[in-house]
Every structure is written in C-alpha cells, then in structure tokens.
Amino acid sequence: MPDHLVLPTPKAGAGVLDLLRRFTADSSAAASYGADCLTKTRAIEPRLKAFEYLPRDVTAKTGPLGGIPVAIKDIIATSDMPTTNGSAIYRDHVPAADAWVVERLRSLGATIFGKTVSTEFAWRHPGPTVNPWNPEHTPGGSSSGSAAAVAAGLVPLALGTQTLGSVIRPAAFNGVVGFKPSFGAIPRVGVHPLSPSLDHIGFFARRVDDVALALSLLAGTSADDLHGRPLPGFAVDVARGLAPLAKPKLAVVRFAKWDRAEAEQKAVFDSVAAALRSAGAVVEEIELKALDAVNSDAVTTIMLSEATAIFSDLIARYPDRVSVVMKGHVDSGRTKTAMEYLTAKAAQADRQRALTAELDGFDAVLTLPAFGEAPRGLDWTGDAEYCAPWTFVGAPAVSLPAGFGKNGLPLGVQITGPYRADLHVLRVAKWAEAVLAFDPGIPLLART
Questions:
Q1: What is the C-alpha to C-alpha distance for residues 293 and 385, in angstroms, rounded to an integer?
Q2: Where residue 292 falls among pLDDT bands split at 50, 70, 90?
Q3: What region, left, alpha or beta, does residue 121 occupy, with left being phi > 0 and alpha being psi -120 to 50 degrees?
Q4: Which of 121, 217, 230, 247 is least buried, going by the fewest C-beta atoms within 10 A?
Q5: 373 and 222 in contact (C-beta within 8 Å)?
Q6: How many CA atoms does the CB half-sphere of 211 hold within 13 Å?
Q7: In sequence order, what DSSP letters do the residues of 91-129 get, joined into one string?
Q8: Is 73 assigned a catalytic role?
Q9: Distance CA 420, CA 442 (A)
C-alpha cells in the first residue's frame, strides 16, 4: 500500500477467534474480559454515543461463543433490554421475546452486550453516534452504533442489518470488517422490517475469520421467515481459522459511478488490486452494465413500496413521533404503482440469476464499498450506491479496511460474489486480508 495512505496507530483489539483461544488457555480470562469491555465502554460512551442500552450482566457463559460480548443493533428484539428501533415511539419498549438470532447467540454462550444505536427504523434519519476516527464525521448507517463500537474496540463482534448499504458502508467508514451474508441466510424473526425483499442481518468484527465463524454458527432457517433459504453448512476451526482461497481470479467492477469516487479511494482501490495481482491473483476488469442500469430504480422502488406499506399506519397513529425524513420517504413510496413494484421484483430475480452466469470463471468481485471517507456532519449517513447492487441481488459481501483518506478516516474495499457463494467469498476475503496485512488500529477517540 502507498505509504501516504497508512497512518501509524496502535494495533487493534483482539478478534473473536483470538479471544476464544485465550479463554481456552485461561478459563478466568473470559470472566474478566466482559467486565473490562463494560468498563471501557462506560468511559468512552459519553463521546462515542454508540449504545442505546448497556448490559447489567456480563457474566461469561459456556458454549462455542462463551465469553464473547456481542452488541445488538437496536432494531433486533431483546427480551431483557429495551428495543427502541431508533424511534421515540418505542422508547421504553421491551419485547416479549428475543429475536431468532439473539436467542441463537444466547444458546451459543455469547454475552448480549447491550443495544447499539440505529437510525430511525434503520431508514436514514440518524442517531447521535459519531465516527470514532473523527467525531465531526458520520459513522455511517443505519448500523451506526454497531460499527463504531467494534471500531473503538469496545466489543469484538456486533450485529447489524442491511437493506441498501447499512453494514458494508459503515464498516468501511469505521475501518472494520463488515459482512452481509446472502439474502435469507439468517432468519429475521424479531427484527423490525424495513423492506422484507431486501433486509439482511450482518456482522461487524475485526477479522474475516470472526465473521466467518459468526455465519457458520448463526445461519439457519425459521418457518416464520418466508424468505429463508439454508446455506451449505461449514465449520470454522477456532485454532486455525478459515482456510483461505489462494490466488483467486477476481473480477474488478467499477460501475459507471466510478468517476464520482474520491481520488484517495480510487488510489487505495487500485493499490489493493495491484497488491493482490502481485500476490498471484488473476485480476480482470469486467462491466456489469445490466445490473448497474437496473439496480438504482428497481431497488428504490422495492424499498419504498414495501416500507410505505409497513410504516404508513405508524405515521398515521404517531405523526408527532416520526421524523420528517421518514414521512418524506413514505410520501415517495405512495407514488409507486403496483406495476412498477412487480417490474422491479422481476428485475431483482432476473439479475440474481444472471449474476451467477456473468461471474462464471471468477472466484469473487472486487469493487468499492463507498465513494470515499465518511462524510462530515452527523445529519447524513453517506451514499449506499456501491452497496445497493449486491443487496439487490442478495449477494454475500465483505468490506475490508484498506487505507486512509486525506482526512485521516478509513477507506475500504468490497469483495462480493454470486448469491449463496458465501463461503467462497469469505475464503477469498481471508486471502486478501492476509495479503494486504492492513490493520487500521484503534481510533484516537477510543484511546483518550
């Protein structure tokens, strides 16, 4: 990587697999780790504002994720903590039951480490969380608190959701690994919907191994989530991690919007492509013109149509507790016709099928996760255009930290691939992570 794109910082905190190995070697370490995380979080939280609610009990449990604190985005139901959905309507709401994914985490021994700030119903209107690299910049959204909490070293793993770009984009903005599995890989029962045809559960962590382990343990199906489709099962060895896919064949996809990317983001991307090529990857430029052309209008039509059906009644009942931003989106959704919606849904299915054929012979796609650094200000969470195509087709996607921009904020790259090729994409990302050997460290806000 070019020297001017890397800022020297202390090494980042341990990842999930690092911790599990430590806990195996020293059983007392798990008991103290959770308490240490809580102490650090309480000290930093007044500045970071990543959490809606912190846990009262961080006692380490036993299980495959025993002793691992996991932060939960605040649109995901927790039966022992408030779930506000980022809305004044639900300020004191405590659900009767855990979300499917929270129940699974508890069964695996994980510590449910509080609720992280979400934009209002995960739909653009921001909460108070700041970017830990520079509090004058957004952390991205809608999974704002989860991304910031992992970046600050407060937790090694956090849950987020993505309907357009709400895992991949904030992961890039905060300098952590973000992973959005294939659509339907994890049941969304107990997660407040925004657009059921697009909503995904995803993860934030410090390493590719950590998100791979999370998927291997949390993938599943539920009769109450009609969009679920089981992934081929796989396991991650805690001692060795995921086996990388060496010297992959990568399709570089820039899209027509490439010219809008910041110069530093382009430089980091080209440096990554060159580094992977030098390490033995076959790197070829391709164009996915049909996906690029249909994606924006179709994904917007689907999201607005479905969200309007979900939120119209809520706005009618609580007009004084809903943001102007949400009201504007719902008004836009009301202009969409049934024919427009059905056409967009047909395009979604068509592009998902076509992508598998278009990527035949390639192991993964290398593209951007965002146009550049996190924007200045907290009133906008950034542009999701580089994430939306892969959400639209339900493809697995990984964001890897790869450098810094002119303002000292993180920049990343995105690795994605065909629908349900999650393990293959993760193995490519693991190899790329090792080649780049880039660790952004812990941001200043979390060290003061």
A1: 12
A2: very high
A3: left
A4: 230
A5: no
A6: 34
A7: TT---SS--HHHHHHHHTT-EEEEEE--SGGGSS---S-
A8: yes
A9: 33
Element (DSSP H or E) covering residue 365: strand 364-367
Reply yes or no on domain 3-447 having CATH 3.90.1300.10: yes
Cα dihedral sign, 369-413-149-129:
negative
**pLDDT (mean) for 329-341:** 97
- Contact yes or no for 312/331 (Cβ under 8 A): no
Summarised one tens digit per residue, pLDDT across range 428-437 is 999 999 999 9
> Is 115 annotated in the active site?
no
Which of 118, 144, 166, 182 is catalytic? The answer is: 166
Q: Give yes or no for residue 57 having a pLDDT over 80.
A: yes
> pTM of whole model > 0.85?
yes
Of 87, 118, 142, 197, the active-site residue reads 142
Instruction: Please compute the mean of the pLDDT values over residues 370-386 and round it to a whole number.
Output: 97
* Residue listed under structure tokens 């939960």: 72
d(CA 175, CA 179): 13
142 flagged as catalytic: yes
Instruction: Report the share of the chain in percent with pLDDT over 70.
Output: 97
Note the residue count of the chain.
448
Residue 13 confidence class, pLDDT cut points 50, 70, 90: confident
> Which of 138, 92, 81 has the alpha carbon at shortest distance from 114?
81
DSSP string for 135-195: TTB---SSSHHHHHHHHTTS-SEEEEEESSSTTHHHHHHHTSEEEEPPTTSS--TTB--S-
Rg (alpha carbons) of the chain, rounded to whole number: 20
Question: What's the distance, Cα to Cα, between the start and end of the chain in Å?
Answer: 28
